[in-house]
Amino acid sequence: FGAESQYLLADLYFHAKNYDKAEKQVMDFMKKGTSHEYWMARAIIVLSDVYAAKDDKFQARQYLESLQANYKGSEADIIDMVSSKLAGLQ
Question: What is the model's pTM?
Fold first, then answer.
């Protein structure tokens, strides 16, 4: 539940348009690390959304492309989210 709660908190900050707090939350989560790759992937997607909202499409794309290249899970929702968000950044 800890990894999921880290993601949910970042997502909550993002939806409240508190982008700096969302970014900090994900960065802190990344520093701590987790064995729950799914929740880390979801948090990285939120981080990409934060950068897109801040009009930093380069950073947003970099995180998504890195996730696409390195994510070892097979969950369709992660794969679909990354693909659709990358398409939206074009």
Answer: 0.94
SS3 77: helix
pLDDT in tens, 30-60: 999 888 999 999 999 999 999 999 999 999 9
Question: Using CB atoms within 10 A of its CB, is residue 36 exposed (0-12), middle (13-18) or buried (19+)?
Answer: middle
What are the angstrom distances between the C-alpha of 30 and each of 6, 51, 55, 84? 10, 16, 22, 23
8 A C-beta contact, residue 29 and residue 6? yes
Q: Does residue 57 contact residue 89 with C-beta atoms inside 8 Å? A: yes
